[in-house]
Amino acid sequence: MDVRQGIFLISISIVVVLILKQLHNSAKISSHIITSLACTDTDIKDYFKANGVIPTGSWSGTGSEGHTIGGARFHPNLSCSILSLTMTSERLRSCFLPKNRNRILTFGDSNAKKYFNAIYHAINSSMACNLKHREYINKTTNTHEINSFLKPNATQHMQVDSFVKCWSCYSELYECSNRGRTLILEHIGSTTLMSERKSVADDDYQMSFNEFLFKHYLKNNYTYPNVLFVFPPFNHLCRTLHPKLRRKTVFNFVKLLHRYIPSSSKVYWITAFRQFEEKKTWSRGFAKYHGKLASEGIIELNQILVDVLKSRLSDPESNDFTMWDMMQTSEGMEAWSYDGIHMKPWWYTRMVQDFLHVHCNSLK
After folding, report:
1. CB within 8 Å of 22: residues ≥ 6 apart
2. Which residues are 128's β-sheet partners?
3. Cβ proximity of 269 and 312 under 8 Å
4. Which of 198, 242, 292, 326 is most buried, by CB atoms within 10 Å?
5. 200: number of CA atoms within 13 Å, CB side?
6. How many CA atoms, within 13 angstroms, populate the side-chain half-sphere of residue 250?
7. How far apart are CA 73 and CA 85, in angstroms?
8. Where are the domains of the chain?
9. What is the pLDDT tens value at each position of the chain, 364 positions in all?
């Protein structure tokens, strides 16, 4: 080996050592960032207080048209990191089983049900979950039997008119357990917020479906939730609710929830994502409701919700929280849409992983 070959090999060795050192330092920096700058509820509240809007963000790993689903990551425009990685079983258990009896509740329509399914799959991977009851839909009488919302020894027979429900957002409840601790995981399906019409009936009284849920059911069965994810059914209300009634309806629902849900419960208000008219398989494509396309109505309803919650979303002492702007998050993501109204399963999985990370990062 001559001198030039020796100098060349030495140079290559030096370059390799420098590259490995740089990779090691980068890994240390990345680990530090993930550890010290993991996003929490406080980061989102601080952003809202400073800017008056909920965070937006951008995607990476989606390709130019959002086609690459498996490697996609969403990055809110916050000075912190969202850990879009599968949570370990141990972390899930420590986060959602802090007490002997615990409860996670989701509320909303068929999209909320899909978010719930993603939460269920995440939880079920770390503890044993068993289905306890599921709402029965009677398509012959066009009603939803809600006896499952009553205690097992109840004698009343209760039902709710189908106009407040949908066939694909039925309610169901799982009981999950690990090492003597229990987690109630439940979805309550509804396509309205607070209906003026009295829709729940038995032999003794009538009231709106949601009033029954918050005033009686959640109080008398199990416990109020530790964590409540509210997915307002705006993809229904943009069609069914007249614009003049929207602010009053959202305000009344928020007021109802605050009246009965204790301050010890964390409430996450998740805005609705956009609809993709060109992907709709029914006759609804490019249909206008009250003179607007569906997404335009959803934008208005999302803004009303944020306006109603404005003082609470920036208050560090409030139990109301939000995530990021789902309308903006879903922009340009046509490839992720299943039918123009619902997303493909990976969307709900990815968003739920991020939601759970933010919640767990925020626990003291």
Report:
1. none
2. 177
3. no
4. 326
5. 22
6. 27
7. 9
8. 1-36, 38-362
9. 555 555 555 555 554 444 444 544 444 333 333 444 889 999 999 999 999 999 999 998 765 454 556 678 888 999 998 865 567 889 899 999 988 889 999 999 999 999 999 999 999 989 999 998 887 766 666 666 666 666 555 555 555 554 445 666 778 899 999 999 999 999 988 888 755 445 555 555 567 777 777 877 787 666 789 999 999 999 999 998 999 999 999 999 999 899 989 999 999 999 999 999 999 876 677 889 999 999 999 999 999 999 999 999 999 999 999 999 999 999 999 989 999 999 999 999 999 999 999 999 998 7
Q: Which amino acid is at 142?
A: N
Side chain identity, residue 280 = K
Q: Which CATH architecture has domain 38-362?
A: 3-Layer(aba) Sandwich (3.40)
Integer Cα distance of 167 and 144 in angstroms: 9
Distance CA 357, CA 43 (A): 13
Lookup: tokens for 283: 């006759």
